[in-house]
Amino acid sequence: MFDAHVHIIDPRFPLIENEGYLPEPYVIDDYRKRMRHFDVRGGAVVSASFQGVDQTYLKAALAALGPDWVGVTRLDLDATDDEILELNRAGVRALRFNLKRAAADITEMTLQALRAYELAGWHVELYIDGQMLASLQPVISKLPALSIDHLGMSEEGLPYLLDLVDRGARVKATGFGRVEMDVAETLRRVHTVNPGALMFGSDLPGTRAGRPFEDRDVDLISQVVGSDMHAVLEDNAREFYRLPAIGRQEPVPLPRAENPTLPIPRSQLPGSDDHTRPLPIIE
Fold first, then answer.
1. Is residue 204 a contact partner of residue 218, using CB atoms and an 8 Å limit?
2. CA 18 to chain centre
């Protein structure tokens, strides 16, 4: 499993109240304990609004988690090329545009995103209500690579989301407890348009969500996508974040004889002879 959307809230590093909200700590050990019964082999640590543009927590988290983990960050608009390249060396692979809980100059952010893509190949991840996608389409269309958080958040935005998926955008199958839609139907429709689009994420610890991640969310995804389960739970995200693919051992097929349904002659059975021995009489 690759968890494409995790928040690490480490009180050793700067935290900023957002709309009067400051989350409880949620450190790497908390995450590992919660997900210990899943085979998590990598993931993406995503910067949230209450972390502002601080990079110290993200560098520390990626160093502790290891090379199969990547970062998704927010940057000062005046961040230099050298800063972007330094973060890339630390494992950062994407910019996050929080257009739901943070004021933003979308034009300047787009210019920054184009620069980060040219320098380091970073894509953009949008936290946005899907209803805004139509109005932002002229800007979004300029982004070379894009993913949308939490299934686009609302039913009303689904047509615009599916249009972006058809153009190559990815969609995070995350935050089921914070969206306003039929999750199973949305997963099905996105997957139908592009089987490579969906990427699982736990969204832990689920700050301000109606409910946090539950194990049954993975069951729901598996039920919807069927034989593409491995792609949605791991492979799609690893490819998008430019990480090596995970090899899986194919099941060894059992040897099959020719015409396996033909009966075996009695003379060929082990220990066979021309006589049949009766069963003993049971008193």
1. no
2. 25
